[in-house]
Amino acid sequence: MHKHIKSLLLGLAVAPVLAVCTPALAQSATLEVMNPRGEIPPPPFHAPSPRVTDLAGKTVGIYWIGKAGGDNFWDGVEEVLNERFPNTKTVRYEGPFDLGEKRAQEIAKEVDTIFYGVGD
Amino acid sequence: MEKAGVPAVYLATSQFFQNAHLSAEDNGVPTMRIIGVPADLYYRERISKERARPVAEKMIDEMLASLTQPITEEESNPKKRSSVTGTIAFTGDTPEAALEDFNQQFLDNQWSDGLPLVPPTPERVKWMLSGTSRAPDEVIGQLSPRNGTVTIEKIAINAVMAGAKPEYLPVIIAAVEGLADPNFDELHFSTSTGSFNLVIGVSGPIADEIGMNSGLGLFSYGSRANGTIGRAVRLAMINMGHTWPAQNDMALVGRPGAHAFLTFAENQAQSPWTSYHEAAGFAPEDSTVTLTVTGGYGRTGTNVYGGGAVALVPPEAVLQSIVRDISSVRTGIAAGGATGNEKAVRSNYRKFFVIFNPEIAQELNSRLGYTREKLKEHIFEASSVPFEELKPNEVEAVQRAIDSGYIPAEFAERFKAGLKPGGKVPMLSRPDDVQFMVAGGIPGYTLTMTYFLDGVYKPVAHISKLVHSATLTKASQGGAGTKLTTRLVPDK
């Protein structure tokens, strides 16, 4: 439907507003309206980081924001990882939704790759 | 973590999948790898480790693939987002058909609130803009969660759609300025699962001049000013914040008054106290819009006191009940202590916004002698809790608030004195944590509305903005000049 709205754009062309043409001219009415949307300035783009090729010998971080029950799920993930990859280390982290640049940099030094889960 | 160079995978439930993608896009990582865990499975099974383990087993292969499969060309170089500019035309066989097409397409594109809109034709937007002397292209800021740019013209377009009149526009602008203020936490209340709500209170002479309801049924239907001012704010959030239910507005049950919020005017004519805006430091002739966040439901939402037209409840009892409830709503302090998170301690002190109905306010003032300041001080003192009633983690949290300097210096001694056997510990960080206006009719009810004192993502959840640059009312004419334009609670 978004495409539909775009296809109806008139640009800055002047058009009659809710103008009803007489039957002799055309059987239509046009309603011209202004766009209510606030433009979202695009943030600087970051591509996802290159992936690890396999998990053997790697450290996998698990970050969770503490929302109820998430620990039960992540405990399960950690168990399965440890069973499948005995040479893979897992490290658990807990903190706010927005972990902040400083904390992210600290964790980056400790892990090769990471799962991030809000709990929702 | 992606920005820190760590290959990451974000796990969200399927209910929050789109929300997670929008958030990643807004943070500059639009192709972040996100996995949706089926919500109907996750929420039910997270109850115990035993039940959650099979969910982990079900998801693990997809999680591992996301960690190890190489990044594709499309993920490295995604297509740029396109935007809609200019005017938009809707054509139909009849005016009614064009109007219906406009309404349906605006709704389909999530540009509407679901109720029929007034078409924002260039002529009608120009008419709306006649209510302010501010330039249409003046940029106010950005609205959360997606940070769309707010201009005076965009506010006017949304005000037209809401059905507002030009003389309301300066009030609507002030309200949107409050939302866009970098100190005001619009993000949490507008997106949280908790269905938090927004209260919009107008104080000052412009309220009467534009016909706002401040009396009986203050939150009711039937007032064009109250209804369309609130609706214009809602539409501004939809169209400049780019918010939408179940996508990034995750309020699980929605908000009471979701289309127009709780929009009302102070009943200064029947108030025994100076106006709210004057008490906040604005000039008597000024008008302001105050935004304050409240819980949506339950005891941490809106509570009602007094007997209304039915029961005989004296003001002493109303005040006692308010004090009792403020004393008891201290779960936030406990939570702060439990997590040991200093930010959490600060965030979990609560603020209370009280709307006193006129006869209670008049009695509190004339018979019981409460000025505004005395009343705040009384509530601060009386809602203190005996030290012996606090749990260890609550004591720990209060102590941390004192040690971190969060408790203002002028009140720290009272906290220290209270934090020992035989002492009483305040449940508010300072008397100013209680703010109040008088509104409603006679008879009426008194309401309290509560939320975190500090915002969750930004510093405050209570802000007052000056209404100015009005052209069609006697009140609020002229620019802001050197006037006070913003007041935050707590002061920052």
Q: Which blocks of ≥5 consecutive residues of chain A have pLDDT under 50? A: 9-25
User: Largest sheet of chain A, if any?
Assistant: 3 strands, parallel
Structural class computed from helices and strand pairing of chain B? alpha+beta
Question: Structural class, from secondary structure content of chain A?
Answer: alpha/beta
Summed up, the helix count of chain A is 3
Q: How many individual β-strands of chain A?
A: 6
* Low-pLDDT residue intervals, each spanning 5 or more residues of chain B: 334-346
- Termini of chain B, distance in Å? 31 Å
Mean pLDDT across the residues of chain A is: 80
Question: What is the overall silhouette of chain A?
Answer: elongated
Number of discrete helical segments of chain B: 19
- Rounded to an integer in angstroms, the radius of gyration calculated over CA atoms of chain B is 25 Å
Looking across the biggest beta sheet of chain A, what order are the strands in?
5-4-6
Can you describe what's shown?
The complex is a heterodimer of chains A (120) and B (492). Chain A is of the alpha/beta class and 120 residues long. Chain A has a domain of 59 residues. In chain A, 24% of the residues lie in helices and 23% in strands. The longest helix of chain A has 15 residues. Chain A is elongated. About 14% of the residues of chain A have low confidence. Chain B is an alpha+beta fold and 492 residues long. Chain B has a domain of 67 residues. In chain B, strand 4 and strand 5 form a beta hairpin. In chain B, helix 6 packs across helix 7 and helix 8 crosses helix 11. The longest helix of chain B has 20 residues. Chain B is globular, with a radius of gyration of 25 Å. About 3% of the residues of chain B have low confidence. At the A-B interface, helix 1, strand 1, strand 3, strand 4 and helix 2 of A face strand 1, helix 2, helix 3, strand 3 and helix 5 of B. Strand 3 of chain A pairs antiparallel with strand 3 of chain B.
